[in-house]
Design brief:
The chain is an alpha/beta fold. The chain is 30% helix and 23% strand. Helix 1 runs antiparallel to helix 2. The chain has 2 domains: 77 residues; 246 residues, Major capsid protein gp5 fold (2-Layer Sandwich).
């Protein structure tokens, strides 16, 4: 008895559902017909479309459960592939890594002496004269001998600057730290500028490079102090292996333990292929990772600010650069953050004061790619 009652209730509910479905479909038909009628009179401003594709698709879904047209309309309405249709809202994953181009420079700070000062110049003394001494017997006379004289000179510091800028909005909203990135680039460009000046600078408003001093073939005992000795390669624009030996032994033995070579990469490539008379390469690879390669037993440094090989070019240097060259720093990089001068930009006015000069002209030798 109970089971029959449940069965009757189910049949009744099913009939009611079917009636509701029929009435709903009739209602949808009436709405579609009304929407399809041409507008007239007062109804014109209230009817915006004669045929609504969304309504038709929705009606089809209610009748048959087919949602294909609804999905099609949804994909047309918003699309990742089209920026105006929603692609702007789908942001790609951004990496915090910045790919930067590398620029060639020279390792002058790694080989020279660096001093930090708190004034505008560094004063130094030199003693380039020899004392006189004489042999005598126990009862022999002893006369006065000459006394060495001292010299004094100074190395002034010069200013290098950069003024990169960025908008405040970019600084606030960027996914990377714009300030750190800009200041990192400033530091790198300052390094390249000063390394070039340590080699090629004329000393006017910048450090003086060791290639700009007067050079001659005179040895240490005959050359005027303030000149740098050069050794000819024997062939124009070409490095001959024998000339490298000549250059190495032109440097006094006291300086050689801390000596190193400086040359541009392209020239090092050609030197690397040269051999001695017995067929051995004069170039030796580093035995430990991170250590420089060696040329005739001495460290070989890549210095891209040295001149490329050419007629009479001074493309190779050999010396004890800690003895020969002094770099002077006045503090470090100073940055003035200026958000007022060029609104809406923020200017990072960056300055650095640095100087440099040769202090020992016997501790460095140059190879001149010439016959004499």
């Amino acid at each position: 008895m109970e089971q029959a009652t449940i069965q009757q209730a189910v049949e009744h509910l099913t009939a009611e559902a079917m009636n509701f479905k029929d009435r709903y479909e009739q209602r949808i038909d009436l709405l579609e017909k009304a929407a399809a009628r041409p507008p007239s009179g007062a109804d014109f401003n209230n009817i915006h479309v004669l045929e609504n594709p969304q309504m038709k698709a929705f009606g089809k879904y209610l009748r048959s459960g087919d949602d294909g047209e609804l999905k099609s309309l949804q994909s047309k309405a918003m699309s990742v592939g089209s920026d105006p249709d929603g692609g702007y809202l789908v942001l790609p994953t951004q990496s915090s890594r910045m790919i930067e181009r590398l620029f060639d420079t020279s390792p002058m700070r790694a080989v020279a002496t660096v001093e930090t000062i708190s004034t505008d110049s560094l004063e130094m003394f030199n003693d380039v004269t020899e004392l006189e001494a004489s042999w005598t017997s126990e009862q022999g006379t002893r006369s006065n001998t000459s006394t060495s004289t001292l010299g004094k000179y100074n190395i002034p510091v010069h200013e290098v600057y950069a003024s990169p800028k960025a908008t405040q909005k970019l600084i606030d909203d960027s996914s990377i730290n714009i300030e750190s990135w800009l200041l990192g680039k400033v530091n790198k460009v300052f390094t390249r500028k000063e390394n070039d000046a340590f080699i090629n600078g004329n000393g006017v408003g910048k450090p003086r490079g060791f290639l700009t001093y007067t050079n001659s073939t005179g040895g240490d005992s005959t050359r005027t102090w303030g000149e740098i000795q050069y050794v000819p390669s024997g062939t124009s624009a070409v490095v001959e292996p024998d000339s490298l030996f000549d250059l190495m032994y032109a440097l006094k033995s006291e300086y050689r333990p801390g000596a190193s070579w400086l040359a541009p990469r392209a020239l090092i490539n050609s030197i690397r292929k040269k051999k001695t008379g017995t067929g051995d390469y004069i170039w030796q690879p580093a035995l430990t990772a991170g250590e420089p390669d060696r040329l005739l037993g001495f460290p070989l440094m890549y210095a891209e600010d040295m001149p490329a090989a050419g007629a009479s070019s001074l493309s190779v240097a050999f010396g004890n650069f800690r003895e020969a060259y002094t770099i002077v720093d006045r503090q470090g990089i100073r940055v003035l953050r200026d958000p007022f001068t060029d609104k809406p930009n923020v200017i990072f006015y960056s300055t650095k004061r640095v100087g440099g000069a040769v202090v020992n002209f016997d501790a460095i030798k140059l190879l001149k790619l010439s016959v004499s």
